[in-house]
Amino acid sequence: MRSNRRIEADRRQRRFATLAPSAHAGRYVPLMRQGYTIAAAAILVALFSTPAFAANDNPWIEVEGGSWVPSPEVLATLKSGIRRYVEAQARKERRELKKWSDYTFQYRGQQQHGHKFVFVSGFCTNSGLVKDVQLSKRMVLVEDGGTCFFDLKYDPGEKRIYGLYINGEA
User: Fold this and answer.
1) Could you tell me the residue ranges of all domains in the chain?
2) What's the Rg (C-alpha) of the chain?
């Protein structure tokens, strides 16, 4: 009695043999294994099209003068969680954020009492309040300005975002 694995291999071979002329039978590679390729591709497209990944489309600018430089892995983790965190906190405070794609982010690796964190400043690019600023030289920190401006901290050791401050209205 043949094993199920061998029977399945024979079925696949017969299915793909009908796609290729016999002279080229060894050169053809199946593009799909039992439909999994299409399902996996559809899942990946749906996953990477979700709003959670939209933060990666926003500009992120490293500001000079930090005490350490966050690695690409640290930034990727921060970027993947920042939107969800900020939106949840804004809802708790009954604050309405601007359109997420309007925000630009500055960051700098800082250290306080031996504890490393990433300081992030988020601001609306089109707010009109950010003018003639060299974004890689100076952090954009303003008073008031409403939900166009916020800052927070990210602890890479604990992979935790904390200390969100959303600016008030004048």
Assistant:
1) 4-48, 52-166
2) 25
